[in-house]
Amino acid sequence: QVQLVESGGGLVQAGGSLRLSCAASGSIFSINAMGWYRQAPGKQRELVAVITSGGRRNYADSVKGRFTISRDNAKNTVYLQMNSLKPEDTAVYYCNADVTTTNWSTVRYWGQGAQVTVSS
User: Fold this and answer.
1) CA 20 to 30 Å from 49, out of 4, 62, 109, 120?
2) What DSSP designation does 43 have?
3) Based on the number of CB atoms within 10 Å of its own CB, is 102 exposed (0-12), middle (13-18) or buried (19 or more)?
4) If DSSP codes are grouped into helix, strand and coil, which group holds residue 88?
5) Tens-place pLDDT, residues 70-105
C-alpha cells in the first residue's frame, strides 16, 4: 500500500527551530494535498498547515509567520519548517497525504507521528 514516514522531531529550546520531513512511498499514482496536524496531551488533533498540489498554502493562526510548509513532488515529501518555537508548540506532529494509488483508490494516509518538545 502506501506509507508515510516522518523524521526530524526532537527537543528544542524556546525560540529555536526544527524541520520535519514526511516521505510517502508505495503504490502511489498521485498525491493531492499534503498537510501537518498536531496533537498535544489531552487535546484534540488540530490542523497546522496544508499545501495543495498546486502549491497553495494555509496555516493555523497560531503558527502563521513562524512555520512554513513546502513539498518536493519528485520525492513525494512534505516538509514543515518551524521557527521561533514556543512551549505551546509541544505536541506529536502527524503528516498526512491524500493519495491516489495505482489501484485507483483515493485515501488519506497518516504518518506515524513525530514528537516535538519545546522547553521554556
Assistant:
1) 120
2) S
3) exposed
4) helix
5) 999 999 999 999 999 999 999 999 999 999 999 999
At 59-75, the pLDDT tens digits run: 999 999 999 999 999 99
Residue 83 to residue 68: CA distance in whole angstroms:
8
Phi, psi of 41 (to 5 degrees): -55, 130
Residue in 20, 109, 112, 113 with CA at minimum distance from that of residue 71: 20
Residue type, 27: S
Neighbouring-strand partners of residue 113: none
Q: Please say whether the beta carbons of 39 and 94 come within 8 A.
A: yes
Q: Are strands 106-110 and 2-7 parallel, antiparallel or unpaired?
A: unpaired
Q: Name the strand (E) or helix (H) holding 2.
A: strand 2-7
User: Locate cell 521554556: which residue?
Assistant: 120
Region class of 76: left (phi > 0), else alpha (psi between -120 and 50), else beta = left
User: Angle at Cα 36 formed by Cα 79 and Cα 110, nearest 5°?
Assistant: 100
